[in-house]
Amino acid sequence: GRAIAFALADAGADIVIVGRDEQKNQQVVSEIQGKGRRALSLSTDLLDIAAIGDMVGKVVEEFGKLDILVNNAGVSHTQSALEISEKDWDKVMDLNVKSLFFCCQAAGRVMKEQGFGKIINLASVAGAVGDLGISPYTASKAAVINLTKSLALEWVRLGIQVNAIGPAYIETDMNSEALSNPKVRGKIIGKTPMQRLGEPDELAGAVILLASESSSYITGQTIFVDGGWLAQ
Q1: Distance set, CA 29 to CA 34, 124, 129, 194 (Å)
Q2: Nearest-10 Cα torsion for 105, 10, 1, 23
Q3: In degrees rounded to 5, what are phi and psi of residue 85?
Q4: Which of 58, 69, 118, 203 is 20 to 30 A off residue 214, Cα-Cα?
């Protein structure tokens, strides 16, 4: 999320950082303001659906419009499919799919009135192919890919484009624990044709493309930034 926010700020966008950790939010806001862009922090729990509408309302109140939404919040759960509890399943699906949909809905209502908007959802290569031990995550990201298509079709006449980015394994806080295991790390790198993990900054190109007029004829698509993962 931080790398995406910086990429958009460098391209000329004003930024709203949304997250539950206000200290981390403010750090990113300060860095973006240092680039000469306006920035706002909103401490929001996206599992609270009512709070999503309030969040979007505050954005419009502060900036007067909402041109770009990036749905980057996500969580995973690693466990055998035979052992996953209902609670664990719901935790992944509620954040990765349910909250994403209602963020799209809240932003879409504003974008409809504007006659313009760009929505970028973070999917994953795991939404296009299966993987071991993360069945709730793979199911949630497959849902994101298809939801992206459905919203793109429904909102295309409103001037709203909906696309997704599907990374392979990127070095982030979310997967740092798993990637610290040499066996896990080696297995992932061995399966990646480029023979390395991705860096957060390497999502910038796809984000800027989908957020800009350069993608004026693209909607309903998922761009995979995966080091060749899906070419196999």
Answers
A1: 9, 27, 36, 33
A2: -110
A3: -90, 165
A4: 58
How is 162-208 classified by DSSP, letter by letter?
EEEEEE--B--STTHHHHTSHHHHHHHHHHSTTSS-B-GGGGHHHHH
Which residue carries 């000469």 as its tokens?
36
Q: Quote the tokens at residue 47.
A: 């599992």
DSSP 8-state class, residue 156: G
Catalytic annotation, pick one of 137, 155, 224, 229: 137
Closest CA to 103 of 57, 142, 172: 57
Q: CA 16, CA 66: separation in Å to the nearest integer?
A: 10
Q: Are 3 and 200 in contact (CB under 8 A)?
A: yes
Q: Is 217 a catalytic residue?
A: no
Tell me the pTM.
0.95
- pLDDT, one tens digit per residue, over 73-132 is 999 888 999 999 999 999 999 999 999 999 999 999 999 999 999 999 999 999 999 989
- Report the SS3 class of residue 14: coil
